[in-house]
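Readers of this paper often ask what the protein records in our data store actually look like. Such a record has a labelled line for the sequence and another for the backbone structure tokens. Nothing more is needed to write down the fold, since each code stands for a local backbone conformation. The record that follows is passed on verbatim for readers who wish to inspect the format.
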Amino acid sequence: MGFISVIISSSIISVHSLIIKYPPSLGNHIIRTDTQGKILSWITPQQNAYDKVIDIAWDFIKNKAPIEANGYKGYIVSCSFDIFSNPGYATNNSLDMAGLFGEFVDSVIPYYAYTGNWSYVEVVKQMLDHALIYGLTPDSWEWPNMPYAWSPRGNLNYSGRIEPDKAGEFGLGLLKFYQLTKESKYLDTALDIADVLAEKVREGNATHSPWPHRIFPKNGQILVEYTGNVVGELNFLDALINLKLGNVQNYENARNIARNFLLNHVIPNNDWRYYFEDYLDDCPTKSEFNADETARYLIENKDWDPDWEDHIKSIWKWVEEVLGEHAWKDYGVLPISEQTIDLYYGEFSHTARHASVKAQYAAIKEDLNFKDEAFRLFNWATYGVQEDTGFVLFSANNLDNSEIWYTDGYADFIRHFMAGMAAFPEWAPPNESHLVKATSIVQTISYAQNYIYYETYDAPSDCIDTFRINFIPSSIKAGGLALTQHTDLDSLGYLLNSLSDGGYVLKIQHAGERCVYIYK
């Protein structure tokens, strides 16, 4: 990925070791700390910080990204935009449509549930609808119905090469969008992609992953045989299997092959080679993305791997030793760089990813040390956000580059802060009410004056949704049934716990009932 110039004031600078003295600033913001000297967000009050950076980023995508000469927003034709000579307008970089649009879905689904603002869904819908018409390989090709992962710059009709892990990300995005909108075209295309992935899977080893990393889709020519990332495909196949959609038996077979590859080859060797689409075929750089998204997969599927805790701690040890930026230790934070070929002084979206995975683990284990690590990482990552322009910077280095990436700055930045507030609702703003975590896709939600109403795609047996709210509910109904307050959520009902800074955490178990009213 590209990098961006930021202002870091320091009296001592050395390569790969930035020692910050006075005056301390990062990304044009003066660094704030608590009484222990540990980093806080530049945004005050702190409780509003994560909410605000998400809002700033989405506002840029919806309202500030300029319309290009071809009539489309820049994210339709380029992976990045300029900030100096032609601020906000697309650069001449190629476009990873599959990965970018899949990440945008992953960001907008929880954001809609959090805000109830459908207009952001419409922004992402425009991306997906364009991709369904102009972004898939022809039926007659060796790899048919696959989304392009590296399309020539400026083209509205996409072409180029494919990367199956990005196809998994895009396919999952389509599946989620189907669950959100009920429009069958998204499901139909998702199933087409899944069928190709299931057909093309192979046994993985140290040199060949279950799906190649890069392919010319017309003739099937493999450009790169190996990638340490199969989580894109796994998350997609898991979702289809759980929903019992498509050729489930074929998907289960492909999933088992990919899982075995992770356990037998990737995790034991920390072989996180090849994820990003913009490096040469002979550049086997290892990425934080592959490592931390695998750790997230293990956390979310811990029943599958009995050694999941040992594995994620081994992964984090590698991430922090190889990609960690220890120069910030005086602020109680260890930012993370992107990949082994690009060691900056820490990179904002990758640090946010590391924070979100640690927050998920901390919430499960009720571990305050990991929670504080995640908190400091998130705080550090907020410094990349520029309130006046809406730009989200790439890295905390002092190199002069003129690009901001739509992935790192937006699609793959927003979703991590959403995951952080899902893990710890107290990180959402006090005095407001938001749904921060939903088991199923929220199709409709209304934050009305006297109630909150929402409807989910389904309501499975483990269906528990989490709000931060600023009122004590007078009553809660699920499908017309009055719910009672419980001390656990083994059955229909809800939990309500007060927070020290005001407001409450509300958890609702509504298995079997898709529609819920929360009355004030």
Q: What stands out?
A: The chain has twelve helices and 19 strands. Residues 1-93+321-427 form one domain. The longest helix spans residues 248-269. The radius of gyration is 22 Å.
